[in-house]
Hints:
disordered N terminus, mainly alpha
Amino acid sequence: MMQKKLDNTSYITYTIVGINLMIFLYMLLKFGTTTSVEALVQMGAKSNIHIVFRHEFWRLLSAAFIHIGFEHLLFNNLSIYFIGMDLEKLMGHLRFIVLFIFSSLGGNLFSFAFNSNVSAGASTGIFGLFISYVVLAQMYPHLLALKQRATSFSILIILNIVTGVMGTGVDNWGHIGGAIFGGLITLLIGLDKRYSSRINWKIRMGSLVTLILLSLLLLYFGFQKVL
């Protein structure tokens, strides 16, 4: 009974939201701000110089849990909460956390390769969650609810990227990278065996190889840009 209750609870989603909030409060207490570059770098934001010269590769993940100002935190936490409540139950806890982590890593790898600014935020992982609905709808066309969500999130992704291109201070490469890695990860892991997919193992292995090669290529570009 307890196991079934845990399976139906989106506790990974709650955990991510909680970590974001705790780190934000800690930054406020320690630095009095969450927007200064110095505070962001000390807390683990993506900093190309630190990654290249100090080999602090952990920043590619830690940056996803750091937020620049209250509005940034609020928007991202609300997005994670409302998407995660649904997607975690559909995918399962393990698949969901794998999706979020690798989308975050991939988004920050793209940012490392193409954006020299210090950056942070969970939007890299969130874009991976967005695109996951789109990919799952193609993998499992018999699940009509996924098709409806996929249409909504496709529009949302396009609007966010267009807004990012037109605006300032937005790490669009992080968003694009999060979506690309999120799509590839979703292809690889899919849903559990209760659902039949039209994607065969060759496509799944192809996505794995693509993830590895793309990660190495992005690391190379990032290092070449700084050195």
